[in-house]
Amino acid sequence: VDAGHRAVIFDRFRGVQDAVVGEGTHFLIPWVQKPIIFDCRSRPRNIPVITGSKDLQNVNITLRILFRPVTAQLPRIFTSIGEDYDERVLPSITTEILKSVVARFDAGELITQRELVSRQVSEDLTERAATFGLILDDVSLTHLTFGKEFTEAVEMKQVAQQEAERARFIVEKAEQQKKAAVISAEGDSKAAELIANSLATAGDGLIELRKLEAAEDIAYQLSRSRNITYLPSGQSVL
């Protein structure tokens, strides 16, 4: 018997023996006894399942399992199930457990609470597999997708949320611009009121001064221009 393997002895007169033969070299009676070799090392298996969530969304799940048989129960496994026990047991119990667990969660919870879903599947599947003499060393959800309609609905929801955020920003910007315009108008109105009060109190002397300053500046700018010529008043130009 090779390393990691066990043998069950079938006797033509007494049937399957209860004793399990371990690794190494053993003797058997030719023609009367026949060994059935089982691999007792952990082996991987991927099982895809299509099921429905609590909110009736189609979910595609792939479950990866590391399994091995219980050594002491190999005679019972061989007698009641057969050498291909993994083909007969794992697909059926995995599909049943996955459908049962996934039906407790809606689509959003399957994404946000994936660790909880995986742990619940592992606990239920390990307990169920033990009744068939199987040990599950690891149970993992390696693939989880939803139907086309649900995926498109999620994408449309994200686009709608982005558009709503953009519209809210535009409204807030318009409100701020409105407030700024009101404040600017109020400032201009207040400044005009102050100027009018000052003119009514002190007269228009300030305006005349500003006119003289403006005329002086204009005359200075014109005197520096080559296209401007000053002629004396009351004399013949020629």
TrEMBL record:
Keywords for this protein: Cell membrane, Coiled coil, DNA synthesis, Membrane, Mitochondrion, Mitochondrion inner membrane
Subunit structure: The mitochondrial prohibitin complex consists of two subunits (PHB1 and PHB2), assembled into a membrane-associated ring-shaped supercomplex of approximately 1 mDa.
Single GO cellular component term: plasma membrane
Organism encoding this protein: Mesitornis unicolor (brown roatelo)
Family in the record: Belongs to the prohibitin family.
CDD domains from the UniProt entry: SPFH_prohibitin (cd03401)
Role summary: In the plasma membrane, cooperates with CD86 to mediate CD86-signaling in B lymphocytes that regulates the level of IgG1 produced through the activation of distal signaling intermediates. Upon CD40 engagement, required to activate NF-kappa-B signaling pathway via phospholipase C and protein kinase C activation.
Protein name: Prohibitin
GO biological process terms held by the UniProt record: DNA biosynthetic process; mitochondrion organization
Domain Band residue range list: 1-158
Source taxon at top rank: Eukaryota
Primary site of residence: membrane
Location in the cell: Cell membrane; Mitochondrion inner membrane
